[in-house]
Design goal:
Blueprint: H1 8-19, H2 24-31, H3 35-47, H4 52-57, H5 60-67, H6 78-84, H7 87-94, H8 101-111, H9 118-132, E1 145-150, E2 155-158, E3 165-168, E4 170-174, E5 181-185, H10 191-205, E6 211-214, E7 221-224, E8 229-231, H11 233-242, E9 245-248, H12 258-275, H13 283-298, H14 309-317, E10 333-338, E11 344-347, E12 352-355, E13 364-369, E14 373-378, E15 381-387, E16 395-396, H15 404-413, H16 417-427, H17 429-439
Parallel strand pairs: 1-6, 6-9, 12-16
Antiparallel strand pairs: 1-4, 2-3, 4-5, 7-8, 10-13, 11-12, 13-14, 14-15
Helix pairs in contact: 12-13, 16-17
Length: 450
Amino acid sequence: MANKPITMTQIRRIIQLKAEGASNSHISRTLQIHRSTLNTYFFRLASSGKSVSALLAIGDEELGKLVYCENNTQKPVGRFQELKKHFAHLQSELSRTGLTRLLLWQEYRIAHPDGYGYTQFCEHLGRHRKILKATMHLHHDPGMYLQIDFAGKSLSYGDRFTGELIRCPVLVCTQPYSGYTYVEALVSARQEHLFCALNRCLEFFGGVPRNILSDNMKQYVVKNDRYEFTFSEIVDQWSVHYHTNLEATRPRKPKDKPSVENSVYHSYLRIYARLRNEEFESLAALNRRIQVLLQEHNQHTFQKLPSNRREQFHEEEQPLLQPLPAEAFLIRRKTRAKVQMNYHVVLGEDRHQYSVPHQYIGQQTSIIYTEHTIEIYLSLTRIATHTRCYRKHGYTTLREHMPQNHRAWQEHLGWDADYFVAVGEKISENAIEVFNRVLASKDMVEQSYR
C-alpha cells in the first residue's frame, strides 16, 4: 500500500544498522523496505543535522516529525470537515422511517456538488456510527444483582387431551457476576405465575441477592417516568417478603441489563436449539428437560477461564447471598362463582370447571386460588379443594361430589379416557404416562381400555 508509514521501531533499527556501517541494500533486504523509500528516510534524517546518538535518544513523537514530512501525513481534507459537521443530523435522519443512506447522499451532493461519492460517503458515515455504538464494561459485585427477563421466543408443548400446541413464555434469570443462569417455561406471563417462578428461581440459587433488575414489564411497573418507577402493590409485597430491592431499566434500553440479554441468547443456542425436534405432553415434562440442558449450560467451561458458571457462583457468589425466608411468597386470588346445575363452578381466568358437592347447586361461592390449588368456600366453610388445571373448557370432577344417580349412570357408561387418567393420577406421574401411551396405542381409544 503506497504512502504507508513504517513504525518508529523500524526507523530506530534503520539508524542502528546505518551506524554499524551496513549498506543501503543490506538494510533494505533485512527490514524489507524498498530502496527508494529507504533513501527518502536517510535524506530526512540527515537534513535534521542530528548525530546518530541524538536521533536514538529523542522520543517517538519528535523522531516522527523529522521522518514524516507534511505531505506524507494523512490530514483530513476540507470536504471531510464539511461532512463531519452534518454527522449528527444524518444520524438522526437515519432513525426516521423510510430514510436511506442513498437518499441522504443524494441530498448531500445537491448541497455539495464537489463532495464525496456514495461509497466514501457511506464509509465515513459508517465509521461515525460505530463510534456512537461504543460499549462500556460494567463491573458487577458478587451477590448484588439478579437480572431477569422474558425471552423473546416462546417454547411449546402438546396438550395430551386436545392435541393443541400450547405456547409458553420463558423466564430467564442471571447472576451477572458469575453468569449462573436459571430458565423456566411458564403457564403464562401473568403475575401469579411470574412470582411463583421467581420463588423457584431464588430457591435454585439458594439465596436472595440485594437487588433484582428487570425491564419495564407490565407485571412490575405501574408508572414509568424514564428514571423513576412506581411498582404495583403485589410487587412491593414480594420484595418485602424476600428483603430485596427491585429496580427497572429505562424503556427500550436492553444494554441496561446486558448479562441477562446475553443469557437469553445462550438459551437459544444451548436449550431452544436442542429442543427443536423434541415433543412434550405437559409443561412439567418440558421444564424437566430444560433443567437438564440448563445444568449442562451452567457447567460449560468458559472459553478464556478455567472454571464454569456453576463453580464460580458456588465458590464466590452464593456465600454472599441473603438467606431465603422460611416460606415462599404465595399469591392468593379470590373470585366468586355460582354453582351451576352440573354442580360445577367456573374459574373464569382459566375457563375451567371444578366440582362441588351437588347439594350446593345454585349457591354463591367464593373461590380462593393459587398457582397450584383451588379452594371453594360457602360463607366461611370450605366445601371443595382441587389441584388447579389450566386446560381450557375442561372439567375437574370428584366422584364423591356427584349425585347417586349420576354415579350409577357413569358406571353404566363404562370406562373412558378421563377415567383412566384419573386413576393414574392417584398412583404416580409414571402411571399417568403409561396410561396415556396405552390410550394412544389404538386408532379408536375404546379399543385400548382392556
